[in-house]
Write a structure and sequence with these properties.
Length: about 425
């Protein structure tokens, strides 16, 4: 769920992302583009249905926003750029029959075979060539930025106009060498060299480093490009909470094995976790398909609301740790500063998922709503229905998920009180 804009939201509270949990997920299942695909897989009943491409565009918008003030320092015209375009000099050996220009007397004497005076004179001539690393990086960066601008123009018209104008200047400056330029993604040493160079190459290196990281660094994408966008930050909150469950299982010496990526199309839990005693759990992310995967009838929700137009479709808790037929631990994530939304609505939803899980998935169900740490500073738990119904309800934050997992594994909900 995205940031709730209800007027009762508390502006003093922050919407933190469980970074440790995100790191756990990224280490467990990584690959090119996986962060965007995983985030697109996160769903909520009242959120926009975004594809991986949609989320990538939003990340590019943030990236250009970071690069914008850096590129604003670049030379303003093509002629200004020419002053800084790097070049080096290399020698061209030339031979003349008569003295002319700058003569290399030492080389002439060394190569003379007829004594003195010599019959041939070795001349000093030089030609200027481009610095391939700097020019190639600038050309590559300009291409990356232009592709990003074309991608996000509808999201950020004013900024796209500014950056495109700067790129036009760069293209004009590089035009005389267009046939010889090899636009190349810079490596680490090339970036270091540029960033320690003078104006404007230090800023070109800084911008190029950001562009490289935006292609390959999942943590940079998650924490620098996605977190600042409130429309998709909630998806990271879900991923991070999932990672905190993984971390808690590892801390209890579970063998955690990824069976499929978060964005996989095959039904089934993403993770299998086997404890020291041999107990096997499935860990689901977005558990709406779990009933079908386990061969159970569909959720009661379908029959209960089938006469209401527009409310059908799959539902499922955000995170489920389950020993099928026996015990299940559910987490419903609510990323908002609206206490009513996190607490009241979250309780209603997590209670509904607990009731549904009792119908075939498990005979003991613990179901918790997860809110930001500022919203939920401590874990609360209701154990009154545990003995009679096998149900434990509560609220917690990502930083305390480990405590909930520990209590669940021990079967002692009173440990959380």
């Amino acid at each position: 769920m995205g940031v709730d804009s209800h007027p009762t939201s508390d502006p003093r509270l922050t919407l933190s992302i469980p970074r440790v949990g995100i790191d756990e997920v990224l280490r467990g299942w990584s690959g090119e583009g996986s962060i965007y695909e995983s985030l697109a897989y996160v769903s909520a009943p009242d959120a926009l249905d975004w594809t991986a491409t949609d989320i990538h565009r939003r990340a590019l918008r943030v990236l250009l926003g970071i690069i914008d003030p850096i590129s604003a320092t670049w030379p303003r015209t093509a002629s200004d750029w020419e002053e800084y375009l790097p070049s080096s000099s290399v020698s061209d050996p030339n031979v003349a029959r008569v003295p002319a220009g700058s003569i290399n007397w030492r080389e002439t004497h060394r190569r003379s075979r007829s004594g003195w005076p010599p019959r041939e004179f070795r001349l000093r001539t030089r030609r200027r060539v481009m610095d391939e690393v700097a020019i190639g990086t600038l050309a590559w960066l300009a291409g990356q930025m232009r592709a990003a601008v074309n991608n996000v123009e509808s999201l950020w018209a004013s900024g796209s106009f500014r950056i495109r104008a700067r790129l036009d200047v760069v293209d004009d400056a590089l035009a005389p060498w267009s046939a010889d330029i090899d636009a190349t993604r810079p490596d680490r040493l090339s970036l270091l060299s540029l960033k320690t160079s003078g104006y404007p190459w230090a800023s070109v290196g800084a911008a190029a480093e950001l562009a490289v990281r935006a292609e390959r660094d999942s943590e940079f994408i998650a924490f620098e490009l996605i977190t600042p966008d409130p429309d998709i930050g909630w998806r990271l909150f879900h991923l991070g909470s999932y990672g905190m469950v993984i971390r808690a299982l590892r801390n209890h010496r579970f063998v955690v094995t990824w069976r499929r990526p978060l964005s996989g199309t095959r039904p089934g839990a993403q993770i299998e976790a086997i404890g020291p005693s041999g107990t096997r759990y499935d860990l689901w992310f977005e558990a709406g398909a779990s009933r079908g995967a386990y061969g159970l009838p569909r959720a009661a929700y379908y029959d209960a609301v089938r006469g209401i137009a527009g409310v059908g479709g799959a539902i499922g808790v955000d995170i489920m740790l389950i020993d099928k037929g026996h015990r299940a631990l559910l987490f419903e994530c609510k990323w908002s500063t609206n206490s009513q939304y996190v607490g009241r609505y979250g309780f209603h939803q997590s209670s509904s998922y607990a009731l549904d899980a009792l119908s075939g998935l498990a005979n003991e169900v613990w179901s918790f709503v997860v809110g930001p740490s500022d919203m939920v500073p401590e874990t609360s738990v209701a154990v009154g229905m545990h003995q009679q119904l096998g149900v434990v309800l509560g609220s917690t934050s990502p930083t305390r998920i480990g405590d909930v997992v520990s209590a669940f594994l021990s079967g002692e909900p009173n440990d959380l009180r």
